[in-house]
Structures are given as structure tokens and as C-alpha cells.
Known about the structure:
CATH topology of the largest domain: TIM Barrel
Largest sheet: 9 strands, mixed
Number of helices: 12
CATH class of the largest domain: Alpha Beta
CATH architecture of the largest domain: Alpha-Beta Barrel
Low-confidence stretches: 3-29
CATH superfamily of the largest domain: Glycoside hydrolase/deacetylase
Structural class: alpha/beta
Number of strands: 24
Mean pLDDT: 89
Shape: elongated
Helix content: 25-40%
Amino acid sequence: xxxxxxxxxxxxxxxxxxxxxxxxxxxxxxxxxxxxxxxxxxxxxxxxxxxxxxxxxxxxxxxxxxxxxxxxxxxxxxxxxxxxxxxxxxxxxxxxxxxxxxxxxxxxxxxxxxxxxxxxxxxxxxxxxxxxxxxxxxxxxxxxxxxxxxxxxxxxxxxxxxxxxxxxxxxxxxxxxxxxxxxxxxxxxxxxxxxxxxxxxxxxxxxxxxxxxxxxxxxxxxxxxxxxxxxxxxxxxxxxxxxxxxxxxxxxxxxxxxxxxxxxxxxxxxxxxxxxxxxxxxxxxxxxxxxxxxxxxxxxxxxxxxxxxxxxxxxxxxxxxxxxxxxxxxxxxxxxxxxxxxxxxxxxxxxxxxxxxxxxxxxxxxxxxxxxxxxxxxxxxxxxxxxxxxxxxxxxxxxxxxxxxxxxxxxxxxxxxxxxxxxxxxxxxxxxxxxxxxxxxxxxxxxxxxxxxxxxxxxxxxxxxxxxxxxxxxxxxxxxxxxxxxxxxxxxxxxxxxxxxxxxxxxxxxxxxxxxxxxxxxxxxxxxxxxxxxxxxxxxxxxxxxxxxxxxxxxxxxxx
Length: 560
């Protein structure tokens, strides 16, 4: 072999080695800055883990979550921040306690097991438990709790206290949030709001973040092919006049008692939706038909079997199989595995059908919202493969759809697999509830006192424009920025369709006819437009032929 060939081969090997060798600077850029360590003893306690992910995701999306038993697999010195969540009571390992003791960065402990951190938090004393019915945040607000909360009755020798709770029966106050030199402890025994909101407030200082202020959004909900386009147009024109960007949650198919109506069957609604899209609205795909079993679109669930409170494991017309239908755990687990495959295909089909139908009408969804906010953990993974943005509230576990949570601010929790959550925090105006506006106003008053918060609500168009004006008036009384979702970077993709937004512009990539639905729609439109033209041409042709024949007969008669 010649020297030249040897040099070329050697150089090639060096290049391959360098390209494949782990790059130190790249690893540092991609390294997680936050480590979340949790202890739990049962599946139900994972809901607090997911709430904590959501709280951290408001500030950081470069974090890692591990169980306490895996502490030996990480080097805490590589992380800027460490957060410990005692989701369940247990005796912690010496390795964990030693690692926490030696960690020098900002440290935040929550809930159970903090009494074992004697060297990390020597100032903390836990004196049993207490019940509180009110919390007081200095220089912020005071909130009555919807129900009594269990907290640890703590004292902190020399610690700063930024939250206190009122014990029931006015038996005194108890510190709930303490810190000494960037070491924090929160004494609440769950993270549901307002506790999660209060932790969010404390994270601003913990992470050294700037306060982001208030963001507002409004969503017109449950717009399906049977909605009155006139009512909707009135509200669209009002929101345009008010210069308010908003979202409209669209359900492409209406179903009820075997009747199916698609957007193609409601051209006036499509025209209205296009007007909205061109004048301030961002389209949110609100499921495909907002219905699973026999309920009417807009009433039923779609991605959760509410009757059995579990994921969609079977077709809606089949009798739901229960654990009691199987003789062994192995048989039931095999059924669940098969059910998860069914669920994946079911959700994929709904997303594909919904995006294709909307795009066929030149309507471009930029985010997804599950009906009733109910969907499994696998469901989030599937949705994330098609949407980069998610709107609403979050279901925390597959044990029940009723364990939902919403943070104060937009977030990217790990279990959303890269999607950004745009939270809905204020609820809606319920028909027939004379106190609905006041209830929303009370929530606005509480949440507007936080340093960063979403004030976000949804409204059903069938209630008319009067209620909408009241909601807008209440939101406009608070200083803040209206969210225009299409100004954000969004990505939606399915098959050959790709929709992206940025700076208020839509970028759509698709074939001429991207789906069977669009092909059939094109044929239908072609027939509608071509048939009158053909009839006109045929009529003119017949007229000319008859005229020519008549002229010929006259000429023959004259010749005779």
C-alpha cells in the first residue's frame, strides 16, 4: 500500500473518531441544570411528582427526575439546583443523606422526610402535624382553602418565613415555607393549589429568575359543525373590534345518536372560522368528535373512558372488560397491553382525521386540547408526536381523570414530551349560574397578585355576546399581555401535512390533495361549480343547434 493511501486512511479514521467522540462542551450545553429527587411508596403518589415537574417546567426545561434509590448514579455537583420531594414517607438511605449534606448549591425540600435532613437543615424542627384552613403570603394575598390541609407543624431557628398557615379553630399560626441561605423547606403535604402556586412564587427567587408578569388569554370553546355561525361571527367581530387575540377550540365532527355532521356540511361556519383565523384567532384542535360512547359531541369524553375511569382500551360498542373478567394477573396485563395498542391507533386516527379535515378547509390548528382535559399518559406522548403546544389543564395519572392540575404559568413538564402547556386558570361561565362572573372575578383577583401568572378563561359561544363582554371587561381591568398563540413558535404535523407559526405568520406545507377527505371535498366542490357551467354550455349548444337547424329548414323552404 502506498504512503499516500495510508495517510488518507489514517486521516479518515481520525475524522470518524473525532465526530463520534463525546464532545465535552456539547455535553455541558445539553446537561440538565436541575435535579429532582423523589421518594414515593405507591403509584398514586406520582401525581405530586408530576405537579412538581409542572412547577419546575415553568422556569426550566433542562431538568432530570430520579427516584431516591438511584442517587448513586448521579453526581450532584454537576447540577445547579437540587429539589427533593418526599411524596411518600420512608427511611432514606445514608447515601442520599450524605449526598444532600455535601451539596453546596440551592436546595429545596418539600413534604415528607425532612426531619431526616438534620445536617442539611439543622435549623428545622418538626413537631408533628397540623390542619390549616387559610394561608397568608406576606405582601401578597390571603387565601381561604377550599378544604382543610394537612401540613407539618414546624419551627425554624433563625429561618426566614415567607408563608404561614392559620390552624383550624384559630389555634395559632404555623410556618409553611422557610429558608436559610438558599436552603428551602415547604411543609405542605400535597402540592395542589394554592400550595403549587405559592411554590411557583418562591421558585422565582430560588432559580434567580426575572418576574414574567401577567399573561391573559381567552378561548371560545366547543365550536363544532352544528354551532350557530351567526352567533360566532358576532363574537368574532366584537373581539376584532376590541383588538384582542384569542383561541377558538374546534371539533371537526359532530356526532349524536348516529347522526354525523362535518365541517363540509356547514359552509357558513367554515367561512366564519376563516374570518376568525384572519382576524385574531388561533385554531386549537379540541379532539376530533369530543365523544366516545353514546354521548353528544361536546358533552362526552373522547380520549378517556369516563364510565370506567380508565384509558380507551376497547371500541365503544364493546362491553368493557374488568379485572374480574380475568383469572390471572398475567391475563389482565396482556389485555391492558393490547388495550394500549388499541388506544394508540385510536388517538392517532382521531388526530390524523382532525388535522386533515381542518386543513382541507384552509383552517390551520396550532395547538391541541383534550376534551374535558382528560387523556392518558400515553396519550400525551402520542399528541406530542403531532403538536408542539397543548392548551388547558393536565391529567396527572392513569388512575383517574379527576386528578387534574394547572400551574400559574406556561410550562414544559417532562411528561408532556416537549410540548409547551398554555394553562387555563380561571374556568368558564356556566349556564344558569348567576354567580359565575363573580367566581371568575375572585380567581382573577387572587392570581393577579402573583409575580407571574396566566389569567386565562374559556367561553361557550352559545351563551351569546353579553357574557363574553363581561369576561373581556374583567380581564381588561388587569394589566397584562394578551397571548396571541400564532405569534409563538408552534409546529403541527401529520403524514404529509406540516404547519408552523412564528411572528404571527403561518407556514403550511402539504400536497395539493393531502387526504381522502380533501380529495372528496375537491370533487364535491368541482361538481358544484362545474355542473352549472356544463348545463349552461349544453343549453347554449342546444340553442345554437336548434337555431342552425331552423335556419337550414328556412333556406330549404325558400329554395323550393
